[in-house]
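Example complex used in Figure S2.
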Amino acid sequence: MDVLTITGARKRFGDVIALDGADLSLRGAELLALLGPNGAGKTTLIRAIAGRVRLDSGEIRLFGTPVDDRRTRPELGIVPQELAVYPLLTARENLQAFGRLQGLSGRDLTAQVKWALAVTALEDRADEPVKGFSGGMKRRLNIACGVLHRPRVVLLDEPTVGVDPQSRERIYDMLAELTSAGVSLLLTTHHLEEAEARCTRTVIIDHGRVIAAGTLPELVDRTVGRHRLVTFRVNEPVSRPPRGVDIAPEDRRLLRARVSNVAQDLPALLAAIGSQGAEIEDVEVRGPSLQSVFIHLTGRELRE
Amino acid sequence: MIATLLKISWTNLKRDRVAQMLAFLLPIIFFSIFASVFGNQSGNSTPRIRVAVVDEDGSDLSRRIVAGLQAEKGLRTRTTVDGDGKGPVLDRTSAEKLVRDGDVPVAVVLPRGLGATAAAFGSAADAPRVQLLADVSDRVAPQMVYGLLQKVAMTSAPDILMQGGISQFERYAGSLTPEQRSAVKAWLPRLKPGNSDAAPASTTASNGVFGIGVDTVDVMRSKDNRESLISFYAAGIGVMFLLFSMSGASGALLDEVDSGTLDRVLSTRVGMSGLLAGKWTFLSLMGIGQLTLMFIWGRIVFGLDLFHHLPGFFVMTAFTAAAAAGFGLMLATAARTRAQLSGMSTIIILIMSSLGGSMFPRFLMSETMQKMGLVTFNAWALDGYLKVFWRNAPIVALWPQLLVLTCLTIVFLSAARMLARRWEAS
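Predicted assembly (730 residues):
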């Protein structure tokens, strides 16, 4: 069941078209990655869902209700890209403040703050001002402040930017805990490997439009196909590569070939290259990745 | 190396409008304001001291003195309650009220019997003496009026004074001889003003030797001058720094915009109006605390009489802090960045403070400058504090200041709310 639906979202800022008819749906208890090059419209879309950007046209519904309705606010948790916490307040004070602003109070607030401190692994630093925290600790607190009031849908704008691998692991553990509790998450990120490894589905947006959506295998099938890319490193440049093998333009000692069945095709390729008199030093086999899908869909040109 | 650094600095300055204004425009504005305050550049802005004149005597001498005072270019006299010759003629009580209310800094009372005993030169113990009813906290006006009064007395009625003087001479030294009496009789008309043969006024008049007896009476509460000035500076400096601290604290809004905290807060159950109301309440309380601390410090260290003025003080402080908080929020919502807010608030607050009397008392400025000052927040706040601490005014007498401060608060907050719309859904 879709908990969040966006249909035909359009938004223009002066001459810039930020959203150009974007459609998107978020299902229950899923972790959906929203990917796109810089300036593609990700943040505008997130801000529109959060009610911070008014669409020129189109509709956003949360559990069937338009998001500009005040009733939808408690259902929504927002984790902005910026570290939106008060640096002079302690972690506990920040959580209490945002909890109260979200309508929590009394024992419920105390219990939620305790839960948030535990899940962010900040119990030991709970009463220290946030300004002394590391980037990873601030990020974790930033997320906790957005989910403290038990929203059923959470928007996360690049929640892992600038943090070390350990904090990133902790953050994804937090997100996994939320989805297992039935919370639906929509996150933007530029870490494609993370999105590939952690997210249920992926949506790719470019020029304000959603250009692809689905699971990784679905996206692969629709774009680059399921073949593997095999790269051979040889000891000396090959003047005439075997059929189906290309010389890499950046290095003539690198040869590349696409295979659909590694077990069947690889031995034949090794034999063909060996027959050219070259000695094979290394072989790398790479399957289709979200990176290749993303580049395939959005191109290699710089956007900024 | 240095050339490169110079180029970087020059480019930064060239592209920073606020820095340019602070460096080049602000000093010129300040120079102009202070030149206007102290230099009285134009003839129209020459300060004229407002004086109430009460003629209880109705003698030839007193009438001549009144006419002489009215002819003085440095004075703006009034002899009626409403000024401009309207309303009942001033008596001592109504003139004293004018001074108490701050409508005039000085009132001259020419007492009954002055003309008859003018010849006493103020030296006879039983001679009535002219009284200057003044707020002695104003060090300039009473002194100027005193000097001009002596001059007017001598130039308006030298014949009368001389005649009386000769009578005094005869009383103590014996009668004049017929020849001497004849010579005096022939000479006295020449002293009368308007006579073409009149002798020039004696320059010794200015030293007071032949002057009339004058007593200066402080109609305000009997407190020393120093204390009055302390209350003025506590209010003046207090209000100026209140504006600075309010605009600085309001800048937290801009920090919250940058950090994304504002977005997060606005996505909760709190709307922009609620957010501004919360900030305004906090800033108002902070302002009340700041002004209270300033006056308590004045009480402890400088002996300021705070406790006898507590009700008036708290009313003025609450309204002043509320308006200043609104002002700070308006500036913060108008600015795009912290740096812009800092530059903008420095310029506006310093100009308002210099015009509004935080740096230099408005009552010592020319009338034009005093009127200009009324467009500033500081002037109304300071006028209120001066009423409380200098004039012992009851709270009800503060209504003009409280009304203006309330209107300013509403205007500031409305402007802030309107400007803050850009942070709402775009």
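The radius of gyration of chain B is 29 Å. Residues 225-423 of chain B form one domain.
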